[in-house]
Amino acid sequence: MKVKITRFPQDTSTIVEIKKGETVQMLLKKLQLRSDAVIVMRGSTPIPVDDTLDDEKELRILQVASGG
Length: 68
Known about the structure:
The chain has 68 residues and is mainly β.
């Protein structure tokens, strides 16, 4: 199954091959991203890292920034 991943604020898109039932955490590992540094969105809804990816066509990954 192929999923289009759009990353923000970079505004870059890639197509990633995943297997049905893979989790968001597994996807992030493939992309070499830390789950505490990004938020994965399905449409306008954030999804937890333990959610499974079934029939996803497009996801957005938002980079989180913090500081003080």
